[in-house]
Amino acid sequence: MPGPKPPVTAELVWAEELRFGVTSARIATVVDGASNAGPSPVQMLVIGLAACMAMDVVDIIRKGRHPLTAFRTTIVAERKPEVPHRLTKASLHFHVHGQVPEAVVERAIALSRDKYC
Questions:
Q1: Mind listing the pLDDT tens digit for each residue in 11-33?
Q2: In this predicted model, what pLDDT tens digit does every residue of 40-90 receive, in sequence order?
């Protein structure tokens, strides 16, 4: 049995304006408040949520040996109109293709939402 996962670490180095270089493990990217050179922090948060759930759902379906042939996730995250423009709601849609029973998909989504992500 594998041991506990190490903590996730990241370093952000200010470049200019609201742009930062980011490194985490072996990954390097840019975060940009203006969304020009890279995603904004809020975009990264939304992408991270969608990616976390998408990977969980695919992993759970595949571990159940169901014939998944294609998968796509879309997310729409709403923000407060006034400052601070925090996220208020996120709606995810999972498009599953293959001979996967609906109950399996619903269980995978619930596990991801309630337990893993």
A1: 999 999 999 999 999 999 999 99
A2: 999 999 999 999 999 999 999 999 999 999 999 999 999 999 999 999 999
The residues near 112 (Cβ < 8 Å, ≥ 6 apart) are: 52, 53, 56, 57, 60
Give the total residue count for the chain.
117
Contact 24, 10 (CB under 8 A): yes
Full DSSP string of 15-81: EETTEEEEEETTEEEEEETTSSSS--HHHHHHHHHHHHHHHHHHHHHHHTT--EEEEEEEEEEEE-S
